[in-house]
Amino acid sequence: MILTTLEGVPGKTITKHFGLVQGSTVRAKHLGKDIMAGLKNLVGGELQGYTELLQEARKEAVNRMIQQASQLDANAIVNIRFATSSVTQGAAELFAYGTAVRVE
Amino acid sequence: MSELLWFLALLALGYFAGTYLEKKHYKSIKKRERQTCHLPTINFGAKQEIPEATNAAMFVGSVVVSADYFKMFISFVISLFGGRIVVYETLLDRGRREALLRMKEQAIAWGATQILNVRLETSNIGDRDSGDGLVAIEIIAYGTGIQ
């Protein structure tokens, strides 16, 4: 599966469009990581625990999107965008969407 | 009295440790920006012709940054009168540059010659509404690397 943020795939032509595919995941924060983050919040800087947590979650969202695209028999997803929104206190939704296409 | 001392201690910790970490981070950012500046990073792509290339892949760089106790206090004071909160400006600047660098470093490791259609996204994942909540801001940078 080729993923791009462009409207096509360089060096290839799109032969078929399958429409929008998306993947999302809602993740809650981890209490242990929250306590660590609270301590780190005193001195500032990167909250590594959260960075990893969200990276992992985003990967999952992308994987779900890929799964959807492969069910449609697509071999690439173009024009991918990400969005994040906090759903409730301490939980965030990570969302990825794009257009599934077949390229040759 | 002991509460005041505790507050001042946290403020001093936030100020000294926070400033030290910020300086260290900026030093590392500047060094890595010099190392990665040979890779063109472009944020158009959608309405341009797709360049000649044989391979393409998406790269995502992300970072969660937080403010220190001193910055939080200063921003509270400034928010009473209004105006620029410079201490948060540097925080977001650091985060954005770090996210871009992480994306570029991954793309360089893959062997990209260019990164196209880069997008930056910022979202607040802390709980600012609950008063003394955590300040946590996630910044992601993503784009398409081509070979």
For the largest beta-sheet of chain A, the strand count, sense and barrel status come to: 4 strands, mixed
Q: How many structural units, i.e. domains of chain B?
A: 1
Strand order of the largest sheet of chain B: 1-3-2
The unreliable regions of chain A are: none
Assign a percent range to the helix content of chain A: 25-40%
CATH superfamily of chain B: Hypothetical protein apc22750. Chain B
Structural notes for this entry:
The complex is a heterodimer of chains A (104) and B (147). Chain A is α+β, with helices and mostly antiparallel strands and 104 residues long. Chain A has one domain (2-103): Translation Initiation Factor IF3 (2-Layer Sandwich). Chain A has 2 helices and 5 strands; from the N terminus they run ββαβαββ. Chain A has helices spanning 31-43, 48-71, and strands at 2-3, 14-28, 44-46, 76-86, 91-103. In chain A, strands 1-4-5-2 form a 4-stranded mixed sheet. In chain A, strand 4 (76-86) and strand 5 (91-103) form a beta hairpin. By secondary structure, chain B is α+β, with helices and mostly antiparallel strands. Chain B has helices at 2-36, 69-81, 86-110; strands at 56-68, 114-124, 137-146. Chain B starts with a helix and ends with a strand. Chain B is elongated and about 70 Å long. Chain B is built from 3 helices and 3 strands, in the order αβααββ. Chain B has a 3-stranded antiparallel sheet. In chain B, helix 1 (2-36) packs across helix 2 (69-81) and helix 1 (2-36) runs parallel beside helix 3. Chain B has one domain (2-146): Translation Initiation Factor IF3 (2-Layer Sandwich), CATH 3.30.110. Strand 3 (44-46) of chain A pairs antiparallel with strand 1 of chain B.
